[in-house]
C-alpha cells in the first residue's frame, strides 16, 4: 500500500499500552520494523512485538535510568543515555540483559543520540556543548567537537555525513571522514527567541532535513542548499514541551503530536496539512515515529492517565499507542 493523503487520514489507534508508571521518554523501531523498544522515566525498557501488537519483554536500568534508546545494527542490542548518576552512554545486550560496553565522556545530560544507518558509528550531543563521535567496538571517543550551545545532531541515511544544529540558528554539515576539518556547509536560519531547537532528522531519501522546536512550529529545509521549504504550525504547544517530529518512510509526509493528544500530518511537497488524527492521548505526544517497514506508527504521551484499579483510584500510567491504516 502506498501512502497518500487519504491513507494517512484513515489511520486509527489499533493498540494502547499502559506498561509504564512514568513518562515514556523515547522509543525506536528495529530496522526490520518487527519490534519497537521504549525507554521511560520509570527506569524501564519495554520491547514490543509490532506484528502481534503486544509487549514481549521488560528490562530495567534502575541505577542509571534510561533515555534516548536506539537500536544498533546487531540483533538484540541497544545504546542509550543515562538520566541518573552520570552521563555515560551504555551499550546493552537485550538477549541476556548485560552491558557490553560503556561510553564515558560527556559531563552533562546527553540530549541527542544518533546511530549510523550503515555501520557501528554513532554520535551524541550533550548540554556540555559537545558532540562526540563513537564506535561501538571501543569505549574511547573517536572524535570531539566543541560548540557554542546546546546541540541537536543526526546522520544522513547513507551514513556519510552528519548534521549538527547549533544555538537554534544554524545547521552545519560534516563529512564523517574529515569532520575534524570543520563543516563543509553551514546554513544560517532566522533566529526565533520564542523557542529552541529540540531535534533534527534527515528524510530517508536524504534530500530534506526536519528541524523540530519546543515552540508551535517545525521547519523543513533543503538538505543541499539549506533553504527553508516549509514552516509547519497550527498545533498546540503552549508549555514549550519537546515534541518529536518525524518523516514517513517514503519522505513524503511530516508528522508531529501536539499537547492535546492529536497528531498533525503535512504533505512535505505542497506544505498542506492533510490530516489531524486522534492519538487517544490525554496529554502532550512527546514521542512519534513511523514504522520503517510496515503501515503503522507509534506515539507516546507524557501525561499520567488515572485508571481505576479494584475500586482504588490513581493507578497512573503513561500511554503508548500504535496506529494502523
TrEMBL record:
One of its GO terms (cellular component) is Set1C/COMPASS complex. Pfam families: WD40 (PF00400). CDD domains: WD40. One of its GO terms (biological process) is RNA polymerase II promoter clearance. It is found in: Nucleus. GO terms for molecular function: chromatin binding; lncRNA binding. It comes from the Eukaryota. Keywords: Nucleus, Repeat, Transcription, Transcription regulation, Transcription termination, WD repeat. WD repeats lie at residues 17-58, 103-138, 235-276. Its main location: nucleus. PANTHER family: WD REPEAT-CONTAINING PROTEIN 82, WD40 REPEAT PROTEIN SWD2. Belongs to the WD repeat SWD2 family. This is WD repeat domain 82. It comes from Gallus gallus. The lineage of its organism: Eukaryota, Metazoa, Chordata, Craniata, Vertebrata.
Amino acid at each position: 500500500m502506498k501512502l497518500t493523503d487519504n491513507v494517512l487520514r484513515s489511520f486509527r489507534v489499533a493498540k494502547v499500552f499502559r506498561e509504564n508508571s512514568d513518562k515514556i521518554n523515547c522509543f525506536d523501531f528495529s530496522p526490520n520494523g518487527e519490534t519497537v523498544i521504549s525507554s521511560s522515566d520509570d527506569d524501564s525498557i519495554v520491547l514490543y512485538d509490532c506484528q502481534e501488537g503486544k509487549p514481549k519483554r521488560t528490562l530495567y536500568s534502575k541505577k542509571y535510568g534510561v533515555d534516548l534508546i536506539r537500536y544498533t545494527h546487531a540483533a538484540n542490542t541497544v545504546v542509550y543515555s543515562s538520566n541518573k548518576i552520570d552521563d555515560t552512554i551504555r551499550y546493552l545486550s537485550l538477549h541476556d540483559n548485560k552491558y557490553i560496553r560503556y561510553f564515558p565522556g560527556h559531563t552533562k545530560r546527553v540530549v541527542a543520540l544518533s546511530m549510523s544507518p550503515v555501520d557501528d558509528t554513532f554520535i551524541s550531543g550533550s548540554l556540555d556543548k559537545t558532540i562526540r563521535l563513537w564506535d561501538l567496538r571501543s569505549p574511547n571517543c573517536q572524535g570531539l567537537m566543541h560548540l557554542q550551545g546546546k546541540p541537536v545532531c543526526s546522520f544522513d541515511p547513507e551514513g556519510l555525513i552528519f548534521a549538527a544544529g547549533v544555538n537554534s540558528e544554524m545547521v552545519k554539515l560534516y563529512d564523517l571522514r574529515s569532520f575534524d576539518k570543520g563543516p563543509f556547509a553551514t546554513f544560517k536560519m532566522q533566529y526565533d527567541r520564542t523557542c529552541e531547537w529540540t531535534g533534527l532528522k534527515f528524510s530517508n531519501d536524504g534530500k530534506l532535513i526536519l528541524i523540530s522546536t519546543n515552540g508551535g512550529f517545525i521547519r523543513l529545509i533543503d538538505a543541499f542548499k539549506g533553504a527553508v521549504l516549509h514552516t509547519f504550525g497550527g498545533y498546540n504547544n503552549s508549555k514549550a514541551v519537546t515534541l518529536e517530529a518525524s518523516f514517513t518512510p517514503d519522505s513524503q509526509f511530516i508528522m508531529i503530536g501536539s499537547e492535546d493528544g492529536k497528531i498533525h500530518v503535512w504533505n512535505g511537497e505542497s506544505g498542506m496539512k492533510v490530516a489531524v488524527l486522534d492519538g487517544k492521548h490525554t496529554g502532550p505526544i512527546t514521542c512519534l515515529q513511523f514504522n520503517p517497514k510496515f503501515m503503522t506508527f507509534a506515539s507516546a504521551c507524557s501525561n499520567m492517565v488515572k485508571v481505576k484499579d479494584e475500586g482504588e483510584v490513581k493507578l497512573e500510567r503513561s500511554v503508548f499507542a500504535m496506529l494502523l491504516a
